[in-house]
Model the fold of this input.
Amino acid sequence: MSAYVMAGPAYRVRFVDPQRHYLRLRGEIDAAIADCLAKGDLVYRQQLRDFEGRFAAFVGTRYAVGLNSGYHALHFALLGAGVGPGDEVITVAHTFVATVSAIVHCGAKPVLVDVRDDYNMDPHQVERAVTPRTKAILPVHLNGRVCDMDRIMAIADRHGLQVIEDAAQAIGATFRGKRAGNFGAAGCFSFYPFKVLGGFGDGGALVTDDPSIARMASLLRYNGEDRGTGEYHYHGYTALLDNVQAAVLDVKLRYLPLWIEHRRKIAALYRGGLEGISGLRLPHFDGPDHFDIYQNYVIRTEHRDALRQHLRGRGVETLVHWPKPMWEHKGLELEDPKLPETEAICREVISLPMSAETTEEHVDLTVRAVRAFFAGAR
Ligand SMILES: Cc1ncc(COP(=O)(O)O)c(C=O)c1O
Done:
């Protein structure tokens, strides 16, 4: 997940802290890696199957297919749903570029719609974007919050469309009690190191209840080959989740519920510290339907760039997801879809430090720095 990272001073509060994270779990992680290496279990072995089984159980689907990125999960999910040249897929522009690239690499056309103020797909806009060529809807559960899936699934049912969920940022988040990844034909997760469940490099998984999508993804990730028969069923890809990564992720999966609770606690502390500042919007969109897991804690202000500089000066590392609308990257060759909310978000959002290693002291320092800014330091 690339975001706009500032080169800066030695930070007192890191955005995430992979080093500290590793040191905390070192014993278990080293043991899991050593076990793979000692057995020579490097590619497509038991550790991968074990992790897939436990990951599927966590999400609540029949199958999980371990892949080397969230991107490949999206690409294979779309192929599994039958998306191909001439099709349109409705998704959002306020997402990581991989969501849209996966559609393009299927030969289909991404149709970009706007988001609501909770940063997630606006179902109204989806309804208006459906055409006879629409094949699928690709909602993105951004920042750890599930989209309004009742309305999105209703639109899909009405028009006979497939739904593929980009759940890269929403592991363990729920909508009406159902976990991200369970709503559509397939769900796509990323294990990029900054994610709530992050590996030591790239990784991802496709989850589904559909045996044909699971099988297709399993073949596509291994150059199209059925390992049992040696038959190549497709021109595929080299896109397996490495065994060592799977073993590490399996260790981390045990802590996932704790880390989700931790993030929710950190979010509540930010809220307690930052509520009431005029001109600052916080990411709390309460209501009984959602259980948010705060992959990112995104605040919003018209003074974003100045606030970011100020926080940097105080030793607080922040990220911006994302500073420029996707269609302004000329190399992507996307039409300007004219999405005012997405454009405003690009100008106004900033993500505060948030990880399993974020402490109350970090929140305190960050809150004080933000408050000082709004009290006039700007
Ligand atoms: C919303 C979203 N979609 C897709 C991806 C792609 O995942 P990956 O980086 O593992 O390919 C990411 C993560 O970076 C993401 O945040």
